[in-house]
Design goal:
The chain is α/β, with parallel strands linked by helices and about 375 residues long. The protein is built from twelve helices and 14 strands. It folds into two domains: about 120 residues, Aspartate Aminotransferase, domain 1 (Alpha-Beta Complex), CATH 3.90.1150; about 240 residues, 3-Layer(aba) Sandwich (Aspartate Aminotransferase, domain 2). It is globular, with a radius of gyration of 21 Å. It starts with 13 loop residues before the first strand and ends with a helix.
């Protein structure tokens, strides 16, 4: 078991729950080329405490990249460099909430975001979702009983459900946030990982001029998680609040050295080429997982095939508790993430999250075979 990883996987286990890119997709040669290019510039600025909002040259390169991906005009002045989405979310909670405040989330939601909200002692209220994501009527009803400080959403290829929020619902979220005085925090890390079906609606980054939306992005899903490099996109006054925090006042801009390397990756076109490769590989891996699930578990699991992202969200047809099946699964050398972990109220017990990003097609087929044997004994 490799102890240098955040979530080490025993050699005998196929962990279909892990939410990482596979080791074969981590671009060592690409980053070696980008680092050599960056260091060859003779610029010592990336080795210094950085500008609080992030190096302007990197933000300009990032803005150009996002314009190509989002098909939206992107202002470098509306970008703030972060140490990935988790740190961005923690910073937003630090500056925009107090212990006891309410945060609305989707049900299901990204389970580690729930951990961050717990660290800040926030009251989490889960709102219903359907096959298209957050149900806006449920949000409107909840707002009749109180106002949250934040609403956290993963609007495109949601983690874990894979749902994508329609354009009209996105606009309505921003309208309701403006009317009721709360902040929408849109975790858009999967928006660039679309590889099946129709293109998603424009990201919620296109709504930041309302002042009611902060859009979060990251290179963790499209380049490498270990870079710990991401961004917050928001109206300039919102970003000034972040830049004036004690954390930035003390430590300066976040991750300037890594940002310089990624700026070279962007300038050389390396990120674009790598992203195209990821889309091809993930599309093939999703095909493999989908086919294996239909062949081996078609009568036991119900799910919708996502159009991108990392995950398939499956419900047990017989309504059994997925967490209770974990000992059987582990005995057969396979694992998953039980649905209860993605619930703000200990629900979703008949669900499981399966990831197609980490293993190759053969590994995914073997994992489903093991899962089918385990469910057959449950």
């Amino acid at each position: 078991m490799d102890q240098i990883l955040q979530s080490p996987i025993p050699p005998h286990l196929i962990d279909l729950g892990v939410g990482n890119p596979g080791p074969d997709l981590l671009p060592l040669d690409l980053l070696r080329e980008a680092a050599s290019h960056a260091l060859a510039q003779g610029d010592t600025a990336p080795l210094q405490y950085g500008y609080e909002q992030g190096d302007i040259r990197f933000r300009q390169a990032l803005a150009a990249f996002l314009e190509g991906q989002y098909h939206l005009k992107t202002d470098p002045g509306q970008l703030f460099v972060s140490n990935g989405v988790s740190q961005a979310l923690d910073l937003i909670c630090t500056l925009h909430t107090q212990p006891g405040d309410v945060v609305f989330v989707e049900e299901p939601t990204y389970f580690l975001a729930l951990r961050i909200f717990a660290d800040h002692r926030l009251q989490v209220v889960g709102l219903p979702t359907d096959e298209h994501g957050l149900v806006v009527e449920a949000l409107e009803e909840a707002l009749r009983h109180g106002r949250p400080a934040l609403l956290y959403t993963v609007p495109t290829h949601q983690n874990p459900s894979g749902a994508t929020l329609p354009a009209e619902r996105r606009r309505r979220l921003a309208e309701l946030a403006q009317a009721h005085g709360f902040l929408v925090v849109a975790d858009e890390v999967y928006h660039c990982l679309t590889f099946g079906g129709d293109a998603p609606p424009p990201p919620m980054a296109g709504l930041v001029d309302t002042g009611a939306v902060l859009s979060l992005g990251s290179f963790s899903k499209i380049l490498a998680p270990g870079l710990r490099l991401g961004w917050i996109q928001g109206r300039a006054d919102r970003l000034r609040t972040l830049a004036q925090s004690g954390l930035l006042d003390s430590g300066g801009g976040l991750n300037p050295f890594t940002a310089a390397i990624v700026r070279s990756a962007l300038a050389l076109g390396l990120q674009d080429r790598h992203l195209a490769r990821l889309r091809r590989v993930y599309a093939a891996r999703l095909d493999a997982l989908d086919t294996a699930l239909q062949q081996r578990l078609g009568d036991r699991l119900r799910y919708r095939r996502p159009g991108g992202g990392f995950f398939v969200w499956a419900r047990l047809a017989d309504g059994r508790d997925a967490e209770g099946l974990m000992p059987k699964a582990l005995a057969h050398g396979v694992s998953f993430r039980p649905g209860v972990r993605f619930s703000s109220r200990s629900g979703l017990r008949d669900a499981m999250r399966l990831c197609f990003a980490y293993y190759d097609e053969e590994g995914l087929r073997e994992g489903v075979d093991r899962l089918a044997r385990a469910l057959g004994e449950g």
